[in-house]
């Protein structure tokens, strides 16, 4: 295990070197991207799987007390405001204020993920262009087959950076979209909670 | 949030970032690993072995064929250009136009050669001076102790006479030029030879002016 890991690290270093100056920005982007994805993944937890209407009834009747996820927390907050006697448009506005932090949490790092997913292939492309420039430079200066440069160096640089850019972007894009979908659904559910709580209390 | 404190979420996110880093780079390195292409080869080899078992009642344990060293193809030299074959598709309006004709003395090149002016490098035999006239050292230069040289290009005709003279280089400039040109014009040469015939030629001649 130890030598295998060591070997892998060596390969990693060789890879980073052959890719040129674009590799390290991409390296940083990978860390940031997956940090953002991880944060979003853990922040956007619904809690119970039951529908919003059922959950509201349960929390209202006192069968459940401890909220487990984001939707649960939102329901508890909304019910607290309603039970304190705020109704109608005032109640709705207060609930909206209370929900602000939930909306914020749902949107946190979304822009970051989207930006990195868009930018990393472009940075890879930049590396490719740099590699091609090196290649054509070597054509001009007749150092075609020289060590550590020339056609071989330029082309490998060109290919590695594009590859890394795409490998960074594609999983990020897929996972990011899945999490985005979840956050969109939960945004709708927050609206639903607002409507149900207010309308039920008005109806009583 | 109530279910997880912000700190915990950030810690988990940090874990994810480490995971993502490993994931991305292991994927990329494995992609570029040459060993990555090996497993399918092994599979193919075993599949072939199975088929042989079905076909033959007695399965013989065959020693695995060792990977043969790659055959090195004998290097071929570039084919010599065959002008006649290149021109074969064209109707040139000439009868039996062949590349061999180009090289013979009587053909195209021979005719051209009659009036052609050649240079030192292209002739078979460079012109040799057969009669030189002595050159007078300029008095002024002798007084001042100036030495130098003049490099000239001479056009020597078929009879070996100097037709034209051009000064290519001189050091010091213009000091010896007139004397040298005047002298060289009276020289006679053994004409240059190309394929056994005298030809007109541009030849270089350097004259040094030294004080002994």
UniProtKB/TrEMBL annotation, chain A:
Organismal lineage: Bacteria, Pseudomonadati, Campylobacterota, Epsilonproteobacteria, Campylobacterales
Listed InterPro entries: ExbB/TolQ_transport (IPR050790), MotA_ExbB_proton_chnl (IPR002898)
TM spans (from-to): 12-37, 113-133, 153-176
Species: Sulfurimonas diazotrophicus
Pfam families for this protein: MotA_ExbB
The protein's name in its UniProt record: MotA/TolQ/ExbB proton channel family protein
Superkingdom of the source species: Bacteria
Keywords on record: Cell membrane, Membrane, Protein transport, Transmembrane, Transmembrane helix, Transport
Lipid bilayer topology: Multi-pass membrane protein
Domain MotA/TolQ/ExbB proton channel: 87-191
Family as reported in the entry's similarity comment: Belongs to the exbB/tolQ family.
Protein's cellular compartments: Cell inner membrane; Membrane
Automatic annotation (TrEMBL), chain B:
Residue intervals of the TonB C-terminal domain: 122-212
Residue intervals passing through the bilayer: 12-29
Keywords: Cell inner membrane, Cell membrane, Membrane, Protein transport, Transmembrane, Transmembrane helix, Transport
Biased composition, class Polar residues, residue ranges: 79-88
Membrane-topology annotation of the record: Single-pass membrane protein
Source species, domain of life: Bacteria
SUPFAM superfamilies noted in UniProt: TolA/TonB C-terminal domain (SSF74653)
Gene3D superfamilies documented for this protein: 3.30.1150.10
PROSITE patterns tied to this protein: TONB_CTD
Family: Belongs to the TonB family.
Protein name: TonB family protein
Native source species: Sulfurimonas diazotrophicus
